[in-house]
Amino acid sequence: MMPQEQYTHHRSTMPSSEGPQVYKVGIYGWRKRCLYFFVLLLMILILVNLAMTIWILKVMNFTIDGMGNLRITEKGLKLEGDSEFLQPLYAKEIQSRPGNALYFKSARNVTVNILNEQTKVLTQLITGPKAVEAYGKKFEVKTVSGKLLFSADSNEVVVGAERLRVLGAEGTVFPKSIETPNVRADPFKELRLESPTRSLVMEAPKGVEINAEAGNMEATCRTELRLESKDGEIKLDAAKIKLPRLPHGSYTPTGTRQKVFEICVCANGRLFLSQAGTGSTCQINTSVCL
Questions:
Q1: Is the separation of the CB atoms in 288 and 249 below 8 Å?
Q2: CB distance 96 to 102 below 8 Å
Q3: Ramachandran angles phi, psi of 48, nearest 5°
Q4: pLDDT at residue 24, as a whole number
Q5: Average pLDDT over residues 89-113
Q6: How far apart are CA 248 and CA 232, in angstroms?
Q7: SS3 string of 104-156?
Q8: pTM (2 decimals)?
Q9: Is 274 exposed, middle or buried (0-12, 13-18, 19+ CB in 10 A)?
Q10: 274: enclosing H helix or E strand
Q11: For the segment 222-245, what is each residue's pLDDT rounded down to a tens digit?
C-alpha cells in the first residue's frame, strides 16, 4: 500500500506539461453580429423618431405659448385664422380681435343653446339655409343706449321705434283688430285703409279724427257708410259740401220750373231733394221715404 500512495502523490505534484486551461467569456460568432445589428437598428429608429418629432414641432408651429394658430394667454386661448371644431365647443366668452369681425360658418346651420344647471335648453337660436329660428320666452331688440326697439312674447308684440315703416306693395294685413294712436302716410304719399271682403270699423272713446291737409279724402264702400256719434254730434266743416247723387222727389210740371231744391229728411234718416217752392215741398214727396 505504501509504494502505491507515494506514487499517486508524486504524480499529483508533478507539473503539467500542457499548461492551465483558459475559458472565454462573452458573445462571439453570429450572436455578436445579431446584437450589433439590433443596436444599430435601434439607433436608426431613435434618430428617425427624433427627426419626425422635430419636423412635427416645426410644421405644427409648437412654441412655449401654444401650437399653430392657438395661443395661450393670460386671458384664455387665442385663435388666429380659420378654426374648425368637429365636436361641441364649450366656452364662457368668444371674442374677435379688436377691429375685426367674428364669423361663424357652417355647411348646414349654426345653433346656439343656452342651458340651465340641469342642461335643459332655455333659449335656442338656429340659423339655417332656409330660415332663422329663435326659441325663448321673450325676444327683444334694443339700441346701444338701451332703448327698446322691438319686443315679442306670448302676450304681445311691442315696436318701440318712433316710426314703423312697411314697404310691401300690398300694404299691411291685420286679421284682427289694431290699436294705435296715429296712422300716417309718408310725405307726398297717400294713405289707404281698405278691407276688400269685410267691413272696416274705426272706434275711439273720445273721437276719431281724419285729416288730409294737402289732398283729398275719400271714403268708399259697397253697401253702407255709417257715421255714428252716440253722445255727441257729427260736424261737417267745409267751404263746400256736395251731395250729388241724392234722389229727387216728384214735382208738378206746371208753372215755371225752378232750379232750386231743398234737402228733406225722412223719418228713417234718408235724405232726398225736393223742388223748392214758396213753402216747404217735403210733405208732398213722402213717397221717396218708402
A1: yes
A2: yes
A3: -65, -40
A4: 63
A5: 81
A6: 30
A7: CCCCCCEEEEEECCCCCEEEEEEECCCCEEEECCEEEEECCCCCEEEEEECCC
A8: 0.43
A9: buried
A10: strand 271-275
A11: 787 777 777 778 888 888 888 888
